[in-house]
């Protein structure tokens, strides 16, 4: 991502205290876009379970916080499929609150996710975007992802068939990794 200038919002690990704000942003995206294929809002308890799972599996949950301490975006990744051979690949999610988009917040969150993935020895990051979410597809392409698959009609949003676009970015080996040590 380019240099977006300001220090804030800054990115840090989420804590349990952030889960309510994460839930608000998540539900805003559910209600106003096709980016998340759910028709109904989720409860804070649902996102608490998500947060606990991220912690239990050692996977990141990050928030972007503005100068006033408000959470304006969040990001995470999980294993892309769970059988052992998929170890090198993770699938990430980024959501920025309405009113804070287009200001570099998503880019900063993505940079932080890439840093974590590299440090964990991951080799591939995958984004799954709604086929109509041209903003997200463009966002990922600007960050070095390329479309590798398009799965027509694999989901539903409000009963309508929706397409999944998979975008992939290959990561460098961690700086301290001996040659060939990465999976
Ligand atoms: C997609 C999203 C995460 C991008 O975050 P953001 O903070 O708005 O993006 P940034 O301001 O960091 O933009 C980074 C780059 O992507 C490009 N970009 C971002 N949104 C874009 C859009 N809607 N259309 C075209 N380009 C876009 C910017 O031009 C920028 O490029 P640059 O760094 O070369 O200037 C955010 O807009 C969002 O949460 N949208 C709603 C939910 C969603 O779609 N989530 C993604 C699900 S896969």
How does this model look, in words?
With 183 residues, the chain is of the alpha+beta class. It has a single domain, classed as Aminopeptidase (3-Layer(aba) Sandwich). The chain is built from four helices and seven strands. A seven-stranded mixed β-sheet has the order 1-2-3-4-5-7-6, sandwiched between helices. A hairpin with a 2-residue loop joins strand 6 and strand 7 (160-170). Helix 1 crosses helix 2. The longest helix is centred in the middle third of the chain and has 15 residues, at 105-119. The protein is globular and about 45 Å long. The relative contact order is 0.16. Residues 1-5 have low confidence and may be disordered. Coenzyme A is lined by residues 1-2, 29, 33, 35, 94-96, 101-107, 127, 129, 133, 135-136, 138-139, 142.
Strand and helix map with partners:
Elements: E1 10-13, H1 19-32, H2 44-56, E2 61-65, E3 71-79, E4 89-96, H3 105-119, E5 124-130, H4 134-142, E6 146-157, E7 160-170
Parallel strand pairs: 4-5
Antiparallel strand pairs: 1-2, 2-3, 3-4, 5-7, 6-7
Helix pairs in contact: 1-2
């Amino acid at each position: 991502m380019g240099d977006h200038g300001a220090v804030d919002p800054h990115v840090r690990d989420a804590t349990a205290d952030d889960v309510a704000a994460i839930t608000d942003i998540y539900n805003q995206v559910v209600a106003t876009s096709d980016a998340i294929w759910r028709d109904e809002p989720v409860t804070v308890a649902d996102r608490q379970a998500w947060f606990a799972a991220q912690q239990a599996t050692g996977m990141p949950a990050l928030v972007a916080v503005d100068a006033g301490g408000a959470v304006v975006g969040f990001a995470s990744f999980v294993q892309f499929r769970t059988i052992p051979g998929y170890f090198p690949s993770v699938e990430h999610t980024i959501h920025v609150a309405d009113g804070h988009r287009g200001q570099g917040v998503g880019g900063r969150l993505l940079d932080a996710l890439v840093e974590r993935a590299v440090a964990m020895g991951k080799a591939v990051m995958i984004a799954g975007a709604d086929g109509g979410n041209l903003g997200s597809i463009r966002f990922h392409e600007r960050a070095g992802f390329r479309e590798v698959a398009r799965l027509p009609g694999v989901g539903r949003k409000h009963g309508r068939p929706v397409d999944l676009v998979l975008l992939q970015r290959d990561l460098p080996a961690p700086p301290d990794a001996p040659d060939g040590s990465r999976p």
